Amino acid sequence: MYIDLQKRNCPLCNDANSKFLFSSKDYRYHSVENEFEYSECTKCQHIFLSTYPKKEDVVKLYPPTLMNYGDIETSNSIGYRVKNHLDFINIRNTIKKTGIQKISALDIGCGTGLYLDQLKKLNGHIAIETLEGMEISEHACQVAKGKGYTIHQCLLEDFQTDKKYNVIIMQQVIEHLHDLDASFKILSKLLSPDGILIIETPNMNCLDRAIFKKYWEGYHTPRHFNLFRKKSFGTWLGKYSFAIHEMKLKIKPVHWIYSFQNMLIVNGDKEKGLARFFTYKNTFLLLFFTPFDLFQILFLRKSSDVQYILKKKDS
Question: What's the CA gap between 221 and 24, in Å, rounded?
Answer without folding.
Answer: 7
